[in-house]
TrEMBL record:
<dbReference type="Pfam" id="PF00300">
    <property type="entry name" value="His_Phos_1"/>
</dbReference>
<protein>
    <submittedName>
        <fullName>Histidine phosphatase family protein</fullName>
    </submittedName>
</protein>
<keyword id="KW-0378">Hydrolase</keyword>
<dbReference type="InterPro" id="IPR013078">
    <property type="entry name" value="His_Pase_superF_clade-1"/>
</dbReference>
<dbReference type="InterPro" id="IPR051695">
    <property type="entry name" value="Phosphoglycerate_Mutase"/>
</dbReference>
Length: 233
């Protein structure tokens, strides 16, 4: 049996990423530089054999997955599905506002003076999720346990499916906070991360019901792809 590995890719840079606006369940398309960056990721991954591919059902994740698969020599035989369980967090009434507004409100809810002070402590994703629920005037944000269950089950079901069929690599396009949250669920010593790069790869190994983290925020595939793009010009 081969190793079972999930390659978790953060989607390409979008309009809202560029404008520094909150983007959870709301959605904007990839920008031209965002598409170029993901094309580079696809080139960097083209020698990696994938048994199947998934993305969240958000448009930016679907666009990213298609751009990556477009560069793969076996794109026609890699099954691809969307799964809403690996969506980004829902930020409720904070959706679409400026990042600075949300990260200005949440520290105050958690009794910190600034965003920098919040992230310099051992704040947890559970505390952040509870703060989002508290700040959400629309009552749409997901409670922590709901969020935890859907994210864990989404990624674990993908890994279990692959392991039961002999192992191999799985491509999964998801979102920055969702991927960082999953890393913390695997290893509670992981810090809260809000800075995973667009197009970065976070590799997980799954064996006998357990995940282990192999890489975090790896941009080497994108860098490799950019070199290929430069050579092919």
């Amino acid at each position: 049996m081969k190793e079972t590995n999930l390659y978790l890719v953060r989607h390409g840079k979008t309009m809202f990423n560029t404008l520094a606006r909150v983007q959870g369940w709301c959605d904007t398309p990839l920008t031209k530089p965002g598409r170029e960056g993901i094309t580079a990721v696809g080139l960097g991954l083209r020698d990696t054999a994938f048994e199947e591919a998934y993305s969240s059902d958000s448009g930016r994740a679907i666009e990213t997955a298609r751009l990556i698969l477009r560069e793969h020599p076996h794109q026609d035989v890699i099954p691809y599905k969307t799964d809403p369980r690996v969506r980004e967090w829902c930020f409720g009434s904070l959706e679409g506002g400026y990042d600075a507004e949300m990260w200005g409100v949440l520290p105050r809810v958690l009794n910190f003076k600034t965003e920098d002070e919040l992230f310099s402590t051992d704040v947890t994703f559970e505390e952040i999720a509870n703060a989002i629920v508290g700040a959400d005037t629309a009552n749409w944000a997901e409670p922590y346990e709901v969020l935890k269950n859907r994210v864990w089950q989404g990624f674990e079901d993908m890994a279990k499916y692959r392991e039961e069929r002999g192992g191999g690599n799985v491509l999964v396009v998801s979102h920055g906070l969702t991927i960082a949250f999953m890393l913390s669920l695997i290893d509670d010593k992981q810090p809260v991360r809000a800075n995973l790069e667009n197009g970065s790869i976070n590799r997980l190994r799954y064996e006998d019901g357990k995940f282990s983290i192999r890489s975090i925020n790896d941009i080497s595939y994108q860098e490799r792809g950019r070199l290929i793009m430069a050579e092919e010009k």
